[in-house]
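Dear colleague,

Thank you for sharing your sequence with our group. We've completed the structure prediction you requested, and as agreed, I am returning the results in plain text so they can be pasted directly into your records. Please verify that the sequence below matches your submission; if there's any discrepancy, let me know and we will rerun it promptly.
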Amino acid sequence: MKNLLAILFVLMAVIPVKAEDGGESDTTALPPAVSLSYIYLDSDSESGSDNSSDGTRVRLFFSDTEGVDYIVLEMLKAGSILPNKALISDMSKGYFDTTIWHNTTFTAVAYNNADEHTRGIPLFVPVKITDENLPPLISLTYTYLDSDGDTDDNTSNNTKIMLSFSDTEGVDRLVLERLREGFRVPSKFEVTDVKKGYYETTIDRNTTFTAVAYNDYGHTRGIPLFVPVKPTADVVEVEELDLEVARMLIYNLDGSIVFDGTPAAFSIDNLSSGLYIKKEILSDGGINTAKIIVR
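Please find the predicted structure tokens below.
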């Protein structure tokens, strides 16, 4: 009999007592997981700010807040390890306005009055891309170098050149594409010191260089630069021919071809407003490039 009473006592100690409503009296329900959604804010919104160099204004909406006393909003920007946090104690509006300068992941952590919490599903919000966010178009120029680094004296089969560039404010990375004559796919190399303003290399055939500038918001492609190999001996002056344009290509800033044909078939009226790169392939295989601005 004593053993039976001991067993009953142990069972009563480990089994939680049920409340009259059928729930367990010694536990508190966790807050619900709060869902997030977002919209971009413009100059006509209540925030009174547009999306420009001042960052991207966003409005975060949250729902399912019944049983939630307050929300801690975690904001993890791209490239960071630890998030910033914001306290939302007034949830009556149903939204929260903030500004981001980088792609950011938001997570709503809901707390109840017992400080128990539930983490919601993370929401990724990309920065809204505008022309002001993107890096500038990088222009290239070139100078011939000799073997000692001085200018204008090439004595080997390879032509040593110095590519110069400017307008690099807002550029985090600079990649040079090098398309050698006779090749269809360019090679690429990164300029490690953009602030230096130049890059030295050698070419063994006529080569077209294109500067691709990157920052956190995207990239832009500069105007291609054609660099001919410099003759080293037996230079003969020839009469310049009146060459015809055999083919014309128009590129947008993403590098996509928007026109490929003859000059006679091209009409600028078919282009939307913006900046384009025109590439003319001459009858002798030479290449001319120019910038087109459509307003």
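Summary note from our side: The longest strand covers residues 207-215.

Kind regards,
the structure core
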